[in-house]
Design a protein that fits this description.
By secondary structure, this protein is of the alpha+beta class. Helices cover 31% and strands 30% of the residues. Helix 2 packs across helix 3. The model has no long low-confidence stretch (mean pLDDT 94).
């Protein structure tokens, strides 16, 4: 039987929403206060949803310690207290939370040893959150 495991993680990071393809005026019009030259920060909450068959020996979809270690090493250590604009993953991308969500999904899905990564949800503020469910689930 397939089961789902959800886990939450937190980190703080800053970013400036700014596209090199736009003029200063257009950047201000598109990104508003998020285009401030010195950037701004968020306390992000990342939710990871993994699915899989329940292992009859362990009773788990995946080992929580393994998942926590993966997310700590690859996501939290990378992004916590970082300026997202300086991260190599955003060298050619505006570090919107949509793009952050996609990057987190890409990294975790490539390294997850057990289970299937179903989705990543990133909460930027109490009003803004973003989800990515992967390409396979988006095909209709």
């Amino acid at each position: 039987m397939k089961a789902y495991l959800g886990r939450r993680y937190r980190f703080s990071a800053s970013h400036r929403l700014h596209s090199e393809h736009y003029s200063e005026e257009k950047n201000r019009a598109v990104y508003g206060k998020c285009n401030h030259p010195h950037g701004h920060g968020h306390n992000y909450i990342v939710e990871v949803m993994v699915s899989g068959l329940v292992d009859p020996a362990t009773g788990m979809v995946c080992n929580l310690s393994d998942l926590d270690g993966l997310v700590q090493r690859e996501i939290v250590n990378r992004f916590d207290r970082a300026n997202l604009n300086l991260d190599p993953g955003f060298a050619t991308l505006v570090p919107t939370t949509e793009n952050l969500c996609l990057e987190i999904y890409k990294v975790i899905s490539a390294r997850l040893a057990h289970g299937k990564l179903e989705k990543v949800r990133v909460e930027e503020t109490s009003n803004n959150f973003f989800e990515y469910v992967g390409r396979e689930r988006n095909k209709s």
